[in-house]
User: What shape does this take?
Amino acid sequence: MSDVLLDPTSERAPAERARAARLAVLEGKTVGLLDIAKARGDIFLDQLEARLGERGARVRRYQKPTFTKPAPVDLRHEIAEECDAVVEALAD
Amino acid sequence: MRSEPRSVPSKPVLPAGVVAFVKRDCPTCELVAPVLAALGERVELTVYTQDDPSFPQGVTRVDDTDLAASWHHEIEAVPTLLRVESGREVERALGWHRGEWEALTGVEGLGEDLPELRPGCGSLSVDPAHAPGLAVRFSGSKLRARRVEVAALEDEQEAFFDRGWTDGLPIVPPTEARVLAMLEGTTRAPDEVVAVVPPDLAPCSVEKVAINAVMAGCKPEYLPVVLAAVEAACTDTFNMHGLLATTMSVGPVLIVNGPIRRRIGMNAGKNVFGQGNRANSTIGRALQLVIRNVGGGRPGEVDRATLGNPGKVGFCFAEDEEGSPFAPLSTEFGFAAGTDTVTLFPGEGPRTVVDQLARDPDLLVNTFAVALRTMLSPKMAMAFDVIVVVSPEHSRIFREAGWSRDDLRAKLHAATLMNGDDLVRGANGIAEGLPEGVRGKPLPKFRPDGIRIVHAGGGAGLFSAIIPGWANGAMGSAPICKEITR
Assistant: This one.
């Protein structure tokens, strides 16, 4: 069951949250790879890390303490401060 | 996520003849069931049944368990008997009343074994458990606002914070049912444009005001005050855009006059600028949410305030007219005493003025004058207006001296007359100041109508307050008073 609420604005902007701007190039950018801590997610992320490295991106790896809960605020802040983009990987 | 307004079932047309609305869960309806059966033999009778489609026996029934006919035809009690001609109701009787039923149907001798009179029960269509949902279902289409669907696992408050639609405090989620209930507070149509709201100059409908009033925590009976405040704020005179864009601390200060103050339970007494009264706390907030959400006026964007003030969440209070020695503030703007009005003043936070010893009005004016002369800067003159809020213990001194509002204002102007020598740059060790040209000349601190006097506050405490204003006149903002109409 979802709630229907009414938009309080002049409706000049979309009600959906806008996506963050996408990176135009990977060269020289820092990309975070967030392992949600499900089994074998690291294998997928290892592949991504190699591919991103080939394209000149720096890669930083992160891991959630558990896949059952949202990433802790500190971790999210750490990623936001250190990275230009993030890939969150789910493997199962 | 969003969804379009749902299609709405149209108003069911009633058949000609006699129409009855009943529910089985009503002893009076059970009582009159045989009467209805007998009546059906004599006249064209249709019975709409709200709970049990098989009730009552022996009549032509229409299943109204979705309550569409009951809601649209504003059935408040069962049994209700209607006489319908050409699809239009021409007569109505509530409950069981033999005389009324006989007059309405033209049939004599109805229910002779029954008591003369038996009141009915509440219609399911007005039952609090059903009514809000029915209102949404049957009249929700009159709401034009975009629907925002908040998923079951999403927190409504967080959804609104995320979208930047709150002032930093939680809001009441504006559901269709709440907004429809809010709109009951006004006779104005939901799609009527109230004002063009700065800074985006977005047209704002009654419905958008109602949505933001729900979010602010208003009751429906506050809505007319909010509507008048929105209209007043979005005028050239008040210049909400400038008030928003200035680096100074001001925001709209709302002062309510007239009987509506008591009708909606506003506070004009103890802690009048403080917390604890729902109307005071939410009406000003609703205006600020309209500016934010409809107008797009957000801090850090067009709102460039250096410091702001806590009243920018919302600053609204009522004048204590009953205890005042002066005529209501609204009379200064040409309204008769007793008119419901809201006055908007471009003001910052209130500053207390203490004098516990003066019993002579001139001595009290001297204390007020010192506070007023230093308002914002002791070197400023004529550029900014002020509201002087006189509390009951101070106003008693003016009352006993027989002073009117104009008397007090004239004394305040005289006592705040400045000497140009003190105003020039560098004078009295203060770099700030006016050009040398004013040296040797007297200069009033305030323009002639730059002092507004309001009576408010608790009955104990020899304190008053001043609320400093902002750049006055055509270049800035002027106070504006607007009549509140339902």
